[in-house]
Write a structure and sequence with these properties.
Number of helices of chain A: 0
Radius of gyration of chain A: 13 Å
Low-confidence stretches of chain A: none
Shape of chain A: globular
Strand content of chain B: over 45%
Distance between the termini of chain B: 37 Å
Shape of chain B: globular
Mean pLDDT of chain B: 91
Strand content of chain A: over 45%
Oligomer: heterodimer
Number of helices of chain B: 0
Helix content of chain A: under 10%
Order of helices and strands of chain A: EEEEEEEEEEE
Low-confidence stretches of chain B: none
Radius of gyration of chain B: 13 Å
């Protein structure tokens, strides 16, 4: 049982480059979210999805795109990387509204230079 | 003002102490509340989930919600060095949206 799998674990980008952070879950969870974690800022919601084909913006969506074509996958795209996007990114999933909290992946550490 | 406020600490206690961690919030629509534990360079893991007001106990951990005061707490009894981590509160307004808002996190150190 893999849970929530994030790849890559580490990435260094140059300013202006684009990339996709991958997130996959094998628990058939409906809800998935992307968070970024910065020192002293806690976890901030970037985008979330309540099911395949349905996504919405969180607190800090600018500079990021998401799509949810399948229940299992929820990739996060950085369109044109900026140093301000240097952070640790976490993907999380949750079964449905009757179940408890989110299960988190192990994170992707992204540095933009 | 942030929707969820949490004292970042750090909080240092001796082994065996009772630890109290707290969060306040401003959005009266929040209905469900969670506590996560995060070890260094790891993802958060769910400790406690509660819906509405009241207490919930799980082993050495007790979660308390006071919606009238917009205040939630996590108590750790007989704290252990292995409890040293960052504790994050999280809450949501509706279980339909899946949108969860986190506090800043409190760093706890339990000294042997």
């Amino acid at each position: 049982n893999a849970g929530v799998t994030q790849t890559p674990k580490f990435q260094v980008l140059k300013t202006g480059q684009s990339m996709t952070l991958q997130c996959a879950q094998d628990m058939n969870h409906e809800y998935m979210s992307w968070y970024r974690q910065d020192p002293g800022m806690g976890l901030r919601l970037i985008h979330y999805s309540v099911g395949a084909g349905i996504t919405d913006q969180g607190e800090v969506p600018n500079g990021y795109n998401v799509s949810r074509s399948t229940t299992e996958d929820f990739p996060l795209r950085l369109l044109s990387a900026a140093p301000s996007q240097t952070s640790v990114y976490f993907c999380a999933s949750r079964q449905d509204r009757a179940t408890g909290g989110y299960t988190f992946g192990s994170g992707t550490r992204l540095t933009v230079v | 003002q942030k929707e969820v406020e949490q004292d970042p600490g750090p909080l240092s206690v001796p082994e065996g102490a009772i630890v109290s961690l707290n969060c306040t919030y401003s959005n009266s629509a929040f209905q469900y509340f969670m506590w996560y534990r995060q070890y260094s360079r790891k993802g958060p893991e769910l400790l406690m989930y509660t819906y509405s007001s009241g207490n919930k106990e799980d082993g050495r951990f007790t979660a308390q919600v006071d919606k009238s005061s917009k205040y939630i707490s996590l108590f750790i009894r007989d704290s252990q060095p292995s409890d040293s981590a960052t504790y994050l509160c999280a809450m949501g307004a509706s279980s339909n949206t899946g949108k969860l808002i986190f506090g800043q996190g409190t760093t706890l150190q339990v000294k042997p």
